[in-house]
Amino acid sequence: MDSATRVQESRVFPHPINVVWNHVRPADFKFWTSAVKETQVEGGLPGEVGSQRKVTFKDGTVQRYQIVELSDLAYFITYEMIESNPPIKSSAALHTIKLRKITHDNSTLVEWESDYSSSGNETASVVEDSRLKKKEALQDLAKALGSK
């Protein structure tokens, strides 16, 4: 039986939206220093819908993502995982990072959502792994921005 699952993590950053967007928009995950070893742009130009990212993680995992939607006006990027070595226990993964301006103090809310389609009993482990990685990545983004 296939099932679909959404994982969402969020965090507020005490920085203007354009400052945070400059770290998120390239989709190179350079801010994610605790997990990402390197990122290469393939199959297009940086910031171009349809371009791909080959992300090599420090644990040896290599994943390839394709940018499927990008908006400088609405401050979001959506990318799809198209390959993973080793394979993950999910048949499909679509990720969106959205930024929202908090007008009260000119800070930024970052929301990171992932929708997974998986088969079998692996859904719980995929969800928990995704949740932990998002929390780690958002912590690293805070460090990259000079936040606590």
Tell me about this structure.
It comes from Spizellomyces punctatus (strain DAOM BR117). InterPro entries: START-like_dom_sf (IPR023393). With 148 residues, this protein is of the alpha+beta class. It has a single domain, classed as 2-Layer Sandwich (Alpha-D-Glucose-1,6-Bisphosphate, Chain A, domain 4). 20% of the residues lie in helices and 47% in strands. The protein contains two helices and seven strands. The chain has helices spanning 17-24, 123-144, and strands spanning 2-13, 36-42, 52-57, 62-71, 76-85, 92-102, 107-119. It has a seven-stranded antiparallel sheet with strand order 1-7-6-5-4-3-2. A hairpin with a 4-residue loop joins β3 and β4. It is globular. The model has no long low-confidence stretch (mean pLDDT 90).
Which helices and strands occur, and which strands form pairs?
Elements: E1 2-13, H1 17-24, E2 36-42, E3 52-57, E4 62-71, E5 76-85, E6 92-102, E7 107-119, H2 123-144
Antiparallel strand pairs: 1-7, 2-3, 3-4, 4-5, 5-6, 6-7
Largest beta sheet: what is the strand line-up?
1-7-6-5-4-3-2
Instruction: Write down the CATH class.
Output: Alpha Beta
Shape: globular
Q: What distance lies between the first and last C-alpha atoms, to the nearest angstrom?
A: 42 Å
Structural domains: how many: 1
Number of helices: 2
Give a brief outline of the structure.
With 148 residues, the protein is of the alpha+beta class. The chain has a single domain, classed as START domain (Alpha-D-Glucose-1,6-Bisphosphate, Chain A, domain 4, 2-Layer Sandwich). The protein has helices at residues 17-24, 123-144; strands at residues 2-13, 36-42, 52-57, 62-71, 76-85, 92-102, 107-119.
